[in-house]
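Q: Given only this backbone (114 positions), what sequence would you predict?
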């Protein structure tokens, strides 16, 4: 499986996890935003299927980071990890075509495409 596809699946999983997390926020319930149990189960099933599309070692890293942080993935901008806001080593900044983790916080890094 190509790096681009794995990266895409990780980003989709990240977005899905954020959606599921947001659904539990009281502020959304307060304004009348509701989701039925079967819809939540459908989202959880989609998450489970998406996780199967990611190589097992990367899925394990993602799940471990998800338990530790609210967001397991952080984007990189101007050489900084936006998970921990630390400057990344120069040699890591040249490896944008690989899946890398932050040497400080361990989050999976991605570079925004402009």
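A: Predicted residues:
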């Amino acid at each position: 499986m190509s790096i681009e596809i794995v990266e895409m699946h990780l980003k989709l999983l990240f977005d899905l996890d954020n959606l599921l997390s947001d659904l539990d926020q009281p502020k959304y319930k307060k304004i009348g935003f509701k989701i039925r149990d079967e819809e939540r189960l459908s989202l959880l099933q989609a998450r489970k299927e998406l996780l199967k599309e990611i190589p097992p070692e990367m899925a394990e890293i993602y799940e471990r980071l998800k338990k530790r942080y609210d967001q397991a993935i952080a984007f990189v901008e101007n050489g900084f990890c936006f998970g921990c806001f630390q400057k990344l080593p120069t040699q890591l900044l040249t490896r944008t075509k690989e899946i890398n983790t932050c040497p400080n916080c361990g989050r999976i890094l991605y570079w925004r495409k402009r």
